[in-house]
Amino acid sequence: QVQLVESGGGLVQAGDSLRLSCAASGRTFSSSAMGWFRRAPGKERDLVAAISRSGSSTYYADSVKGRFTISRDNAKNTVYLQMNSLKPEDTAVYYCAANPYSTYYSSSGYIYWGRGTQVTVSS
């Protein structure tokens, strides 16, 4: 079991940066792939970025490639999402999730979820 708590969301202007953090507790963090999802108003929850257990491999949705960077620190049981050049369309609730059993880019493998943190980007 993994418990996840996100932080770092907020209200920013277009072009600004934010760094989201997700603190994990439980014994399986280092053996879990980690991902960041987001749900915009009226839309489904989508995988934005994911990172493998070792941190050596990453996945990004096309909409955030070149702007967002996912990283993890297994010693601190924390995963990060650095978001640069934010756009109004990045406005969403961002969720941290853990995938203990399948490959990091498999959305269906994420079975542990945080409660989410709101990111609002104004124009």
Radius of gyration over C-alpha positions, nearest whole angstrom = 13 Å
Total E-strand runs: 11
- What structural category characterises the helix and strand content? mainly beta
Instruction: Please tell me what the overall shape is.
Output: globular
> What is the average per-residue confidence, as pLDDT, rounded to a whole number?
95
Distance between the termini: 40 Å
Fraction in helix: under 10%
Question: How many helices in DSSP terms?
Answer: 0
Spell out the helices and strands N to C. Answer: EEEEEEEEEEE
Approximately what portion of the residues adopt beta-strand conformation? Answer: over 45%
Q: Biggest β-sheet: count, sense, barrel?
A: 7 strands, mixed
- Identify low-pLDDT runs: none
Provide a quick synopsis of the model.
The protein is mainly β and 123 residues long. The protein is built from no helices and eleven strands.
Describe this protein's structure.
- By secondary structure, the chain is mostly beta strands.
- 0% of the residues lie in helices and 50% in strands.
- The strands form 2 sheets. Strands 2, 4, 5, 6, 9, 10 and 11 form a 7-stranded mixed β-sheet that branches.
- It is globular and about 40 Å long.
- The model has no long low-confidence stretch (mean pLDDT 95).
